Amino acid sequence: MIKITEEIKNDIIIVKIQGEIEKEDEQEIVSFFDKKTDEGNRKFIIDSSKIDYLGSSTLGVFSKIYQKTCNSGGKIIFADLSMFVKKIFKITTFDKFFNIKYSVEDAISELKNF
User: What sequence ranges are listed for the domain STAS (predicted)?
Assistant: First the structure.
């Protein structure tokens, strides 16, 4: 089970996902981002410092959310990757596909100019 919280700084939504992301949690993530983009939000940071586990299907979910947001004129940045997420992104080469920043602050700086 996961916990999703959000913090809004200016027009940037910082999404904090905490816990082990299992297949049954993925729809909650998709619904969250669908709702936020439908409301007109276009700038997101996914703080993944508290993600303890994610499976291959979650990578697919992240990829779809990333592409949908970018295709609608938005931007998603992954920030503060946990060691587990960092390792998975590197093994799968998603670290070359996703926009990743070392910290949430670095991501905010980039999105301020977007």
Answer: 2-111
